[in-house]
Write a structure and sequence with these properties.
Number of strands: 28
Number of helices: 15
Distance between the termini: 69 Å
Radius of gyration: 25 Å
Structural class: alpha/beta
Helix content: 25-40%
Strand content: 15-25%
Largest sheet: 7 strands, mixed
Shape: globular
C-alpha cells in the first residue's frame, strides 16, 4: 500500500511552496533567531504540538510521511528561502509529519508563541503563509498523505461515522479496507495484528491504535480538544460552529475578544453537509458547505479564536460572579463572561418501522463526495422538498443512474429556490414524486429496498435501493438549555424580550442566540452568517457594563 508523494507540479506550486524575499526574511528575523544545526537533526516529530516555525537560510529540511505499518517516505524537501508547516502548525493541533535537516543547515527558528504574534503583526506575511498552509493541507487530503489511517469496511456504520468526521474536520487520512495489503504483500490486518471483530480501527501513530473510538476520543487524540485552566475566563463562548457560530467567532476574535467555540460534532453544522451552495453572496460558482466552514474556521483561528471540536455542552449556569459556567460532557467546566448559542438543529427522522436499524447502513443525512462515492452507478432516493434536498438531488445526479425524489407537498415552489427547481426539472436522471411518503424499508444487514406511497392515490412503488437520503428539516438542538432560558413550543430559543430591545439577547443578560436555533430567525446560511456577525456589536456594551460593575464592586470591597 504505497503512499503517493506530492506531484512535481504540486511541489513546484508557488503558492504552496513560495520562496521568501530578503525583505520577508528580515521581517521574520524580528520574531526569531538563527541557528546552525548538523545534518539529521530532528526539528519536530509526528504527534508534537506547538511546533516551531523554520525558514531555511542554508541547507535543507526533509519532511517525512508514514505509511499504515510504520514505513517512512520522503514527501518534500524545503530548500533555501522555503519554510516549514501546514495548518496543524497554525492551530496548535498535533502534527502528523517528521522534519529533519537533510544537510548541515542554517535556519531561522520562530518559537510557536512568537509565530502567532508574527501573524497578527505582519499581515502581508500572514496572508502568504496562511495561503501556503491551506494549499499544502488540500494537497495532503487529495493524496491521502500523512494524517491517520482508518481501517474498516464501508458497510460498518462506525467506519462511515469516523470517515465522515475526518472529512468534515479536514484532517488528512487514508481509508484502508480490510482486504488491502502492505508493501510486503501481507494483509494489513496481519501486519497490525488485528481481527475483523476489532474494526473499525484508527491508526494514529506507530503502536497507537484506537478501536472504534468515539468522536471525542478521536478528537482528543488528534489535538482538536482545548486544554482549559481554572484561572482562565473567556470573553465570549460560542456554542455551535455552524455558519452563525463561525461568523460570531470571526467577529469576536477579530475585535480582540478572548473567544472559545464549542462544537458537538464537526464545524459547519447542517450547512457543512451541503454539496454546493450557489446563492451565497460572493461565490458565483458556488461553494460546498464544508469548504465554507473550513475557511471560516481558519479565519477565526487566524484572529486567535480557539475551537473545541467534538465537545458537547451539557449544562450552563451562572456563578456568584455572574459569569457563565459551562459544563462539558466530560465534566470539565469553562467560564465565560458572555455566551452565544448557535447550536443549530438536529436532523429530523422518518417515522417508518425499522428506520433506526438502517441508519448508517443505507440511510444518510448528507450528500457529500463520500456518500456519492458509496452509491455511484446506483439508484437512490432523496426525501425532502427544501434546498438541501434539491442540492443533494442535483449533485447526486452526476454520479448515480437515477434519483427518486419524494416530496410531501404538491409542488416545490414554496420550499425550494427557483434555480434548483429548474435544474431538477431539466435533469433526465431526477424524477420527482409529489404527495409521496416512504412507507417501508427492508433489508438484511443493510438497506436493500424502499417502498413509497402517494398519499392522494394510495399507489405504492418499490425499488431495490440501497441508499436513502433524508432531508426533511431539523429540530432545534436545545435540549441542553431546558430550564436555563425560555424556549418556544417547538424548542427554539426566544430572544428580543429585553428592555434594551436587543433582538438576539435572551431574558438571561449576556446570553445571546443566533442562527437557526433562534425562534424568529430566517433559516438560511446568509441570514445565519449575518446574525453571527451582528451580535458582536451587542456584546461590547454588555462587557463594558459587566467590567464597570465588577470594578465598582472591587473598589467598594
Amino acid at each position: 500500500m504505497e503512499i503517493e508523494r506530492l506531484s512535481d507540479s504540486e511541489r513546484n506550486d508557488e503558492q504552496a511552496f513560495p520562496k521568501l524575499s530578503d525583505e520577508q526574511i528580515n521581517s521574520i528575523r524580528a520574531f526569531g533567531k538563527e541557528v546552525e544545526l548538523p545534518a539529521e537533526t530532528c526539528l519536530f516529530k509526528r504527534g508534537d504540538k506547538n511546533t516551531d516555525f523554520f525558514v531555511v537560510l542554508r541547507g535543507a529540511i526533509g519532511i517525512f510521511s508514514t505509511n499504515c505499518h510504520g514505513g517512512k517516505q520522503l514527501l518534500v524537501t524545503h530548500e533555501p528561502r522555503s519554510f516549514t508547516g501546514e495548518l496543524s502548525f497554525f492551530n496548535n493541533q498535533k502534527i502528523f509529519a517528521d522534519g529533519y535537516t537533510s544537510t548541515p543547515s542554517r535556519l531561522l527558528r520562530v518559537h510557536w508563541r512568537d509565530f502567532r504574534r508574527m501573524l497578527m503583526v505582519e499581515s502581508d506575511l500572514a496572508t502568504l503563509i496562511l495561503r501556503a498552509f491551506i494549499r499544502r493541507r488540500l494537497a495532503l487530503i487529495d493524496h491521502s498523505i500523512f494524517g491517520v489511517f482508518l481501517i474498516g469496511p464501508a458497510e460498518l456504520p462506525d467506519t462511515l461515522r469516523i470517515h465522515q468526521f475526518l472529512i468534515r474536520v479536514g484532517f488528512p487520512h487514508t481509508w484502508v479496507r480490510p482486504e488491502d495489503k502492505g508493501d510486503d504483500g501481507r494483509p494489513i490486518l496481519e501486519i497490525l495484528s488485528l481481527q475483523l471483530s476489532d474494526l473499525p480501527v484508527v491508526r494514529v501513530s506507530e503502536g497507537r491504535l484506537l478501536k472504534n473510538p468515539s468522536l471525542t476520543e478521536l478528537a482528543s487524540e488528534l489535538g482538536f480538544l482545548e486544554e482549559f485552566t481554572e484561572e482562565r475566563t473567556f470573553d465570549v463562548a460560542v456554542v455551535g460552529a455552524g455558519p452563525a457560530g463561525l461568523a460570531a467567532a470571526v467577529g469576536a476574535a477579530s475585535e480582540g475578544l478572548d473567544t472559545i467555540v464549542f462544537e458537538a460534532g464537526a464545524p459547519g453544522g447542517q450547512a457543512g453537509t451541503s454539496s454546493r451552495i450557489e446563492n451565497y453572496l460572493g461565490f458565483p460558482h458556488g461553494i460546498s458547505g464544508q469548504e465554507l466552514a473550513s475557511l471560516a474556521q481558519i479565519q477565526a483561528e487566524k484572529f486567535g479564536a480557539r475551537f473545541a471540536v467534538a465537545t458537547p455542552v451539557a449544562v450552563v449556569r451562572r456563578n456568584k460572579n455572574q459569569e457563565f459556567e459551562i459544563t462539558l460532557s466530560d465534566g470539565k467546566i469553562v467560564r465565560s463572561r458572555t455566551m452565544i448559542v448557535a447550536s443549530g438543529a438536529t436532523y429530523r427522522k422518518l417515522d417508518v418501522p425499522g428506520y433506526q436499524r438502517f441508519e448508517g447502513r443505507g440511510i444518510h443525512y448528507a450528500a457529500t463526495p463520500m456518500e456519492a462515492q458509496l452509491c455511484k452507478g446506483e439508484e437512490v432516493v432523496v426525501v425532502g422538498g427544501g434546498n438541501s434536498a434539491g442540492q443533494a438531488a442535483v449533485y447526486l445526479s452526476q454520479t448515480v443512474t437515477k434519483v427518486h425524489m419524494l416530496v410531501r407537498s404538491r409542488s416545490l415552489s414554496s420550499t425550494m429556490s427557483n434555480y434548483l427547481i429548474q435544474r431538477i426539472q431539466a435533469s433526465p436522471k431526477i424524477q420527482v414524486y409529489y404527495e409521496t411518503e416512504v412507507t417501508t424499508l427492508s433489508g438484511q444487514r443493510i438497506l436493500e429496498q424502499v417502498e413509497w406511497t402517494c398519499t392522494s392515490t394510495r399507489q405504492c412503488s418499490k425499488k431495490p435501493v440501497r441508499t436513502l437520503f433524508v432531508m426533511i428539516g431539523a429540530n432545534p438542538n436545545t435540549d441542553w438549555l431546558k430550564g436555563c432560558i425560555t424556549l418556544n413550543e417547538k424548542g427554539f430559543v426566544v430572544t428580543g424580550k429585553t428592555k434594551a430591545g436587543n433582538p438576539y439577547e435572551t431574558e438571561e443578560p449576556g446570553l445571546f442566540a443566533v442562527g437557526d436555533v433562534r425562534a424568529d430567525s430566517v433559516k438560511r446560511v446568509a441570514s445565519a452568517v449575518g446574525e453571527g456577525a451582528v451580535v458582536i456589536s451587542w456584546i461590547h456594551p454588555y462587557l463594558a457594563e459587566f467590567r464597570a460593575k465588577r470594578e465598582g464592586e472591587s473598589r467598594a470591597a
